[in-house]
Amino acid sequence: MQRFITIRDIARELNISVATVSRAMRDTYDVSRKTREKVLEKAVQMNYKPNFNAIGLAQRNTRNIGVILPAITHYYFAAVINGIQEVAYQEHFNIVLYVTNDSAQREREIIRNLSLTSFDGLLVSISSPSDACQHFEEIIHKGLPVVFFDRVPGDIVSSKVVQDDFNGAFEAVEHLIRNGYSRIAHITGPENLELTAKRRAGYMAALSRYDIPFEETLVVHSGFTQHCGEQDMYRLLQAAIPPDAVFAVNDRKALGAMVALKNKKIGIGSEIGIVGFTNDPACDLVSPSLTTMAEPAFEIGTTSCELLLKHIRKKYFQPREITLPGTLIKRASSIR
């Protein structure tokens, strides 16, 4: 079996102390430039690979980041994870993934059973209601850095990275209005999530801008799944005056609404326009193709991880909230 090269081997080759090699690797002030260059050159020659676990123990760092999120099967969260992994890999951090399946109870159990000494920080997209996140406040008060992304709690003082939910929703609804739709419904997520509230607020602001009366009956709250979107659409179609367009909180719900319209043989676009939010790859594959507000999922992942690393490395780093803009992708589902 091949033996791993250690700093002792480098020290023996150069006839210097192990401590000097260690300080040279860390570029401390008390090692000369010439000595450091010799150490690094010899490390390359001998194919030395740092043992990051050992380094972490010595520095009381684990080099582990916990990621807690509602799902991994959806395009959006898969893209976020790719962004997180890109930064973590470059900085030699490991990712430990926890999936709540959109269960607030499971989320609380994960936090309760979490070994805080096993992680340098957490990246979290919440499943709990925004006003019921005491479990996260407790670990933040214990000193563990936490950065929230996408679905974030409103009342916790911590760093957050989100897409521009309000303006994204406003632009999506404005697009429908400019395409001649006037009775626009909104199928959205649970009422107690900040993401849901901001997208609903953007929807209402667009209606107000164009002097279209807001009707509470045209807003349907439920889950985030395709099945929920389909059931929401059936409910809206039972109204005395059905909507002529729908803005969905995400693409899965928009696709569910399209299934319902197809089952009822109602023309998508020609009779009822549909706009989603995410830009899932399925948007281009369905017929008609789905207009959507594209979220910067990969960038949310990279930005969240970069922000968490700043918290980890700087003890008194002030919390920051970063909002990234989306882009409206116009397709056939919103054309009359």
Describe the structure.
With 336 residues, the protein is an alpha/beta fold. The protein has 13 helices and 12 strands. Strand 8, helix 11 and strand 9 form a beta-alpha-beta unit. The protein is elongated, with a radius of gyration of 25 Å. The termini are far apart. The mean pLDDT is 91. One of its GO terms (molecular function) is DNA binding.
Structural key phrases:
about 325 residues, 12 strands, alpha/beta, 434 Repressor (Amino-terminal Domain), about 15% strand, 3 domains, six-stranded parallel sheet, Rossmann fold, about 45% helix, LacI family DNA-binding transcriptional regulator, elongated, single chain
Question: What's the SSE blueprint?
Answer:
Layout (H helix, E strand, L loop, with lengths): L6 H8 L3 H8 L7 H13 L6 H8 L4 E6 L5 H16 L3 E6 L4 H10 L7 E4 L9 H8 L4 E4 L9 E5 L1 H14 L5 E5 L5 H16 L9 E3 L4 H12 L7 E4 L2 H13 L9 E6 L3 H4 L5 E4 L2 H17 L7 E4 L2 E3 L7
Parallel strand pairs: 1-2, 1-3, 3-4, 4-5, 5-11, 6-7, 6-8, 8-9, 9-10
Antiparallel strand pairs: 10-12
Helix pairs in contact: 1-2, 1-3, 2-3, 5-13, 8-9, 10-11
